[in-house]
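FIELD: query
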Amino acid sequence: MKTASILKQLMQAHRENAYQLAERSGVPQPTIHRILSGEHAEPRSSTLRKLAQCYGLTESHLRGDLVYSIQHIEGVGVAVQASEVVYGEFARIATLDTLKTDASQSVVSMDIRQSWLEKHVGLPASQLRLMTCCDSDMSPTLSPGDLLLLDVSTQEKQSEGIFLVSVNSNLKLRRFRITLSGQVEMSCDNPAIRAVDNPLKIRGLVVVGRVCHTWQSRGGT
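FIELD: result
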């Protein structure tokens, strides 16, 4: 029942059901139900690998051979932190250096399969860092507790996307967009915050990184 218990924990942490996991993993829903019920006490390695990859883990994690922990914010599982053992096919992504002592950051590091990074992010691990979203400035796109993967290799202010910026040492998540006239606008997605700025004209503004992937604290990944 060890695999069934672990899989249940992961599904609960990501707020997903068997149907949603089947869609993401390619494992048939009846097979997932049999694993959860304990009917499949020893699932095939190929099946476990597909399920584990959905959570950035290995088959060994689902079998209970490697230790992992689910981090929580306000009782909601937001991410999986893998064991301290890193294999050649995995890459360890650390929290952004400037946030390592911040108590609001729920995850210190994650071990992620490099093939997953290549498929979903397309960037080497050396360019990536983690952070946890801590405010509602980018709501409803991002919510407090969401885990963000940042590309810290870019300091470009004239491209579109969601960026982490530092203004006089204060970190903020903001959306950059290019207008039809070619101007750069910086704003929040939260409709209650109406301010629109030009990042090129803000003294002391530094682009820390671009958000390239998110794991939501509610509603799945």
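FIELD: remark
The two ends are 25 Å apart (CA to CA).
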